[in-house]
Please model this.
Amino acid sequence: MAITAKMVKELREKTGAGMMDCKKALQETDGDLDQAVDFLREKGMAKAAKKADRIAAEGSTHIEIEGNSAVLIEVNCETDFVTKNDQFKTLLTEIGKHILSEKPESLNDALNQKLYNGEDTVESYINATIAKIGEKISLRRFELFTKTDQDAFGAYLHMGGRIGVLTVLEGTTDENIAKDIAMHIAAVNPRYISRDDVAAEEVNREREVLKTQALNEGKPENIVEKMVEGRLGKFFEEICLLEQNFVKDPDQKVKKFVADKNATVRDFIRYEVGEGMEKREDNFAEEVMSQMKQ
Model:
């Protein structure tokens, strides 16, 4: 397939590899981005294969908790200035309360429902706020959690809502413990709770990448397998919450911290504003100069 400049740019952002190396990797893998990342890692060309997607859109995350229900939402806007606007903050609260009240099954359902305390739909309410503020605003996503009276929610917003984390811990009602786990997740960004949650396909794929890496480093075949298993341990530490060193006490793993509290992590969700969205690239100086000329 034809390799476009956009594909090369995306691969460079994910790996930090050179432009020509990225182009070659895409050619070798017929344009498959994930395989191209693996190709670069196996050749030792990728500087940071786990680099996060660029943070693009502005906006804020928000958490609402009521009784045994909780929700984390992300609402986007065009500029960071809007997130400090009282009308925008009210919008976050009202949408959060609506989702807790009506428990929509999808984003589309949420937008088309009548607001929990009014006659207008959620979408109409957002549009009315757009008219007042003068910027595009959108509800991007949400996640609802429920718990029992014997469990605890952990809620944490970082950088004024730039990152939002919601956790559910079973076996404890101590919200401070659950919040500590939420803070750790905000800082370290695990993808899974435990090793058991990682799909066998993903583990096998990582094992093959690590094996090829070791062989390319010139390691003897008779020790490659042991090396791969050791490096797989580091892989699990990077992506699994319970395998990570606890940020508030790096001398112990998260799994020991929660076990000592007679608790278990049942669920978590982490949102970072704009993750995976393409950033609008504006030149502010040129924009001002253009307006001055007019």
About this structure: Residues 1-51 form a domain with the Helicase, Ruva Protein; domain 3 fold (CATH 1.10.8.10). The longest strand covers residues 58-66. The longest helix spans residues 221-239. Strands lie at 58-66, 69-77, 138-146, 152-158, 163-170, 245-246, 249-253, 264-272.
